[in-house]
Amino acid sequence: MAHIQFVDELVREYLLFRGFTSTVKAFDNDLKADKDKGFRVDKIVDQILHYVNVSDLAGLKEYWSHLDSLVFSKLEVHVQPAVRKIEYSLYKMYLVTAAQSTGGVRNEKVSEFLSKMLSELQGQNEWKEWFMLPYIQKPEENPSFSLYFTRAWQDSVLVSLHNLLATVFQCMPQPTLTSYENDATLVKKLQDEIIALRGKMQQQSIDKTSSIGHQSRLAQYSDRLSGPMPLVDDFCAVPAEQLDSGLREARGLRGLLRQMGGSPVMGRKTPRSQSQN
């Protein structure tokens, strides 16, 4: 929900534009005291981790109660055990951090937690051993508590908390003012679809025009082929009897030429030819 900060700026700009200076001051004060941190998951996790590191049990319980009333209590029933498990894991992280403190502060913070949370935690099997924590010299070496002192376990708790908050905030109903991003995304998607459809229609139009031109050229070639046959084909169409008559005429013509070649006229030599001889 990163767009929440942008909406806050829009609201502040609008209030300044309208001249609501006192409202702007109140709005800024509310933003500074905003427990929701603009629904930024990383900021909320940092705030919870701060209460754990400074052993502020009252602050931790109050902040978790705020988140519970804001979002966790509105979740479905089958999700509640997972939320409760993360809450108890944070309490265990609180005790582990307090137990790693030096001197009397360690026993003081651990004992304070157990005494204040006694009514809530007593009777639960997973917490029975934790009431012995103030009396164990090296709890990080004890098989019952060694896991909780590892960095891997503590990181897994914070990751689970981060994922839970991110999922919940993503599913929360949004006010109309903050839905502009979804509307802008939808408009952009529709515009892209329109552009894609236009390109597809233009391509179809080009393909259709090309097909029509190709068919037109084929029609022209077909017309040419269906017209008069070439000259060589005309000769092929001459009847056989006409061809035989032509052959007889050609033989008669060659015989006539031979007879003319043997005549005195054709055999007479010219003076030029005699001089050459």
TrEMBL record:
Residues 52-171 form the ARMC9 CTLH-like domain. It comes from Papilio machaon. One of its GO terms (biological process) is early endosome to late endosome transport. Pfam families: CTLH_Armc9. It is found in: Early endosome; Late endosome. The keyword Iron-sulfur does not apply. This is WD repeat-containing protein 91. One of its GO terms (molecular function) is phosphatidylinositol 3-kinase inhibitor activity.
